[in-house]
Amino acid sequence: MLTEERKMKLKLLARDLVSIKSLSGEEGELVEYLQKTMEFFSFQSIEVDEAGNIIGGVKGEHSGKKILLDAHLDTVPAEDKDKWEKDPFTGAIRDDRIYGRGASDMKGALAAMLCAVAFFKEDYGKDFSGEIYISGIVLEEFLEGVAARKVSEKVNPDFVIIGEASDLRINIGQRGRAEVVLETFGRPVHSSQPQFGHNAVYDMVKIIERIKTFKPSKHLLLGEGILELTDIISEPYPGASVVPSYCRATFDRRLLPGEDKEIIFKQIDELLAGGDILEWGISIPVLERPTWRNTTLIAEQFLLPWVIARDHPLVKMAEEGLKKQGLDPQLGHYSFCTNGSHYAGEKGIPTIGFGPSRESLAHVDNEYIEIEQLEKGCRGYYGLLQSLCKTN
């Protein structure tokens, strides 16, 4: 399946994708490149939606399922270039690795998907069942699953394969994520006479101490539902001889199946019961981000968990397809959030994760993808299409 010529095409495509800077909200140049690439690979449909996502598709001559291979286009910044051995936006190739921001998260996987579909189309023509789509999603690093809503509306897939790094495992779930904001409100006075006011920070300290006693639920596959402090700020700031009248703390709440907003709010209410805190509030913030197409995505910071059964037909067909390509698939799960929070969590679409490289290489200095992983990822996607699109 992967000739030497095809391996070179894959490697050079991955290098090119990494070399195109595509920070969140600045993915336009990469989308333009992908349009040309899909045209070169003779995709039958290519569309850029109002959010700036790109969707390319090919269709077989036999009826069958709609398969969506999902990737995101944006990367986190590479702010301290002095810590990088090579420019993070050149796609440097050395030591059998491709280096650069997004190499593992997740332009290597995107290159593998594109090449797998192109090679599959070369080998089978239209002699396969169903439809195959690749989505390049924008703003995923800030708003997981939000821009993906546009894609599921357009494609309405039967099965989704998330391409986030899985070390070539079949990932069958992930925890969800809620950003939980707790606020305390006091009475400001001059700090030389604190007895006449009420310090909102002291109340927040009580809250934090009680939250540290939180005993999370556990899931056999996904682990514990975390509640962890990530930032805290008081007002006025700087506090020039003023007792702070306001304090805000943000917590990362990792969600397990069955946990919703009502449950997590109730858990915190129970932790804070006692009446010794003057006034407090709880909320989940709403985030707004502009897209490169000058539209705005708005979403509450609440992402659902998801799990697919080990014996689900999608999992079984995925195992079969990967084995066809000489891979030895193991089952696993993601520790971070993905667009699966929308496809599987919100829409209930059968979803798995499969991608080259490792989670631990995402967002790090000197990010890279091993070329061996890239090639195995491409073979894996090809095998998944063989299985899911009912070819011989």
Question: If helices are DSSP runs of H or I spanning 4 or more residues, what is the number of helices?
Answer: 9
CATH topology of the largest domain, anyone? Aminopeptidase
Which stretches are poorly predicted, pLDDT < 50 over at least 5 residues?
A: none
In round numbers, the mean pLDDT is 95
Counting DSSP E segments of at least 2 residues, the number of strands comes to 21
Tell me about this structure.
The chain folds into 2 domains: 4-174 and 305-388, Aminopeptidase (3-Layer(aba) Sandwich); 176-289, Alpha-Beta Plaits, CATH 3.30.70.360. α1 packs across α3 (103-124) and α7 crosses α9 (371-388). The protein has 392 residues and is an alpha+beta fold. The chain is built from 9 helices and 21 strands. The protein has helices at 4-19, 28-40, 103-124, 148-155, 200-211, 261-272, 313-324, 340-346, 371-388; strands spanning 45-48, 54-59, 62-72, 93-94, 97-99, 129-137, 159-162, 170-174, 176-185, 218-219, 223-224, 227-235, 246-255, 280-283, 286-290, 296-300, 302-303, 306-307, 331-334, 351-353, 368-370. It has a 6-stranded mixed beta sheet, sandwiched between helices. Strands 9, 12, 13, 14 and 17 form a 5-stranded antiparallel beta sheet that branches. It is 31% helix and 27% strand. The model has no long low-confidence stretch (mean pLDDT 95).
List the helices and strands and how they pair.
Layout: H1 4-19, H2 28-40, E1 45-48, E2 54-59, E3 62-72, E4 93-94, E5 97-99, H3 103-124, E6 129-137, H4 148-155, E7 159-162, E8 170-174, E9 176-185, H5 200-211, E10 218-219, E11 223-224, E12 227-235, E13 246-255, H6 261-272, E14 280-283, E15 286-290, E16 296-300, E17 302-303, E18 306-307, H7 313-324, E19 331-334, H8 340-346, E20 351-353, E21 368-370, H9 371-388
Parallel strand pairs: 3-6, 3-7, 7-20, 8-19
Antiparallel strand pairs: 1-2, 2-6, 4-5, 5-21, 8-18, 9-13, 9-14, 9-17, 10-11, 12-13, 15-16
